[in-house]
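Help! Submission page says 'invalid entity' but I think these are all valid:
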Amino acid sequence: MFIVMFRAILLYILIIIAMRLMGKRQLGELQPSELVTTILVSNIASIPIEDPNLPMVLSAVPILTLVVFEYLMSSSALKSKRFSQVLSGKPMVIIDNGIINQKTMKKLRFTNDDLMESLRSNSIFDLQDVLYAIVETTGKVSVMLKYDAQTVTPKMLSLKGSDPVIPSIVISDGKVIKEALKTCNLGRGWLNKTLEENHYQISDIFLMTADVNAQYYIVPKQKTEKQNG
Amino acid sequence: MARKIAIICISLLVLVTSGISVYHTYQVRETMSGMITEAKISAETGEKEKAAKLAEQATAYWEKEEQALIIFIHHTEVDTLTDVMAKLPSLIEHDDLSEFCSELDQALNIMEHIWMTQLPVIQNVL
């Protein structure tokens, strides 16, 4: 029993390292080669956990080999466009200038329902609003709307303004995050002064965000009522 | 760059581990085959004491090497050979020479099979 437990822990660590080495990708956005590697790694890892008669090395070596191979494949794909197309395919246009490319849809075995589902997932419910729809190599559909169906932007209205800034979490659950303060070019002095003005202690704060313009937002901790009896 | 170095290190680790496993299996197979064959010849020529001594040496050697082999060889295969080796002392003790020789043959076959399954040849890969 302990063997299985230790093996599960070791393989978990190994797979985390393997996945980190392969790079950041969301599971839904995996390229075909990455998907194959992920499926193989998960299958190979489960074998020695289920069968204690099998040495763990027989699982670790293929996992590491797949990581190396995946790295080599993605590096080669980065250098050669042709190789990249062989490995991952290329994006396919299924709606071209407002016209559905039925031939491409047939080639991709993409049904009308699939098309409508993809559009709906992009918050588009009317097919006539679509100018271009492209099936990416990950299987995701990217859509460009016709001009009259696009959301109005400040640019369209010739409105001027400044770019927004990203707020960072400077206090999380009563703990000051020094790196975030530094990123916002704010100091501990500013933080203490702000909290004092709002009649709070650091330990009272559940969440506090701030940005480079010293704009902040405070969420105090909810006080739990003690029950009597 | 760090990722590249990690990948190179992992490649080397995989290659070295695979190489060591093949080399170690080869060494064990060579030593075991030598001892077992010699024990069998001694048993067939009636040198019972020499055969017993060689069988004992082979068993002791196997018990030592078994610990290393289970790191990269399927345990069932290793266990089969351990079972065969464990029978040898009692067989020679009870003068069951034909059974003794038969078990030695089996040990040789198992050892050869373990070695063959470790070889990176096309038959094994497919």
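Support: the input was valid. A stray whitespace character was the problem, and the output above is from the cleaned input. The mean pLDDT of chain B is 88.
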